[in-house]
Amino acid sequence: MTASPLVGVRAGIRPARADESPAVADLTERAFAAGAYGHLAVSPERRAFVRDVAGRDASGTVLVAEVDGRLVGTVSLVRAGTPQARLATGDEAELRLLAVEPAVQGAGLGRRLALAAQEEAHAWGARAVVLDTGSRNTAAQRLYERLGYRRFAGADAVVSTGSTTDAGSTGSTTGGIEHVAYRLPIRQRADVVVRLVRDAEVEEAAALSLRAYEHDYDLSAEYRASILAVGERARDHQVWVALDAATGRLLGTVATPRRDATISPLAEPGELDFRLLGVDPAARGRGIGAVLTGHVIELARLRGLDRVVMNSGPQMTGAHRLYERLGFARLHEREREIDDGGRRFRLLAFSIDVPREPIALAS
User: Fold this and answer.
1) Does residue 4 fall inside a structural domain?
2) Nearest one of 119, 111, 247 to 186, comparing CA atoms
3) Is residue 347 located within the same domain as residue 217?
4) Interior CA angle at 182 toward 179 and 188, to 5°?
């Protein structure tokens, strides 16, 4: 068997651009034509669905994998209640049309695309990702099961047709293709939602962060301004918020870099760094700091990184206890002296290896 030309080459994964829609559709058609059902005729409805890249993007997001300017893979993630969703309900996200260029299959790109879609579902605050695939598509089933997906009785999953299925199909016996449905819970806890901050929440998140840090520490004007710059961080990086699932109240926040970037000088290749973990003093005792830190570690796992690192001031002893309880260790060789508003101190560093398996999740 010939090795994939992508072995040893890392494809970049990003949202598809509007002008790439025809190329994304062509790639998807080639991939499915080479798959388990490629011998079957494709109905006009199915072809229209595959080629409606803009529609899937409007209903969620379309991601692409790129190497040297060439698209080599794609996956769509759509929200429940949109025209492109079949199985998703409530706050579930649905993965659709995972496709890898036939010439580069075998390099793990399908896995990376599925994990990138899972990260996008986290950004939405989804509680689970669902999908379905043909019962004869055993390669896809092995992939999803290795990623932790488990079969369930989806509404459209028993029998539908490869030749006539479209986004809104309720299933037909024409063609007789049996589908199986899969579901992957992605929330750590049923009572806490973690997602990206929304524009309308930026000021509230900034006030929460300031309360969290002023509650315990004497802040310099420089550090205070940095804490309050949530809008700037959300624009340039990622700001995650933890919310009470029942009331929607903001409980905590943390900042991470975007994919293939860093948020501080600390991180080295293969590492994810984070900053400004803060929990509202009124929400302490609920384990919110542990949830947010666990979310950061899971992000690193989804991105295929090896280690999570971060800096912390020597006075932040409560945070140090949390990190040590979660398994972080001091990274002495990267600690340094800094000046913060005329106060000089040693900036501590901590790290933890990223596990291969996800952290324990709510069902």
Assistant:
1) no
2) 119
3) yes
4) 170
207 shares its domain with 176: no
Say how many domains are in the chain: 2
**Which amino acid belongs to residue 308?**
V
221-228 vs 202-214: helix axis angle to the nearest 10? Answer: 140
| CATH code at position 299 | 3.40.630.30
pLDDT tens, the chain, 363 aa long = 455 555 556 789 999 999 999 999 999 999 999 999 999 999 999 999 999 999 999 999 999 999 999 999 999 999 999 999 999 999 999 999 999 999 999 999 999 999 999 999 999 999 999 999 999 999 999 999 999 999 998 654 443 444 433 333 323 333 457 899 999 999 999 999 999 999 999 999 999 999 999 988 888 899 999 999 999 999 999 999 999 999 999 999 999 999 999 999 999 999 999 999 999 999 999 999 999 999 999 999 999 999 999 999 988 898 999 999 999 999 999 999 887 767 788 999 999 999 988 765 554
Compute the distance between CA of residue 270 and CA of residue 353 in angstroms, rounded to an integer: 11
Q: CA torsion sign, 17 to 20 to 26 to 31?
A: negative
User: Are residues 99 and 237 part of one domain?
Assistant: no
C-alpha 22/C-alpha 193 separation (Å) is 36
- CB-count exposure of residue 336 (10 Å: 0-12, 13-18, 19+): exposed
Question: What's the domain range around 280?
Answer: 192-353
Whether 316 and 274 share a structural domain: yes
Domain co-membership, 199 together with 280: yes
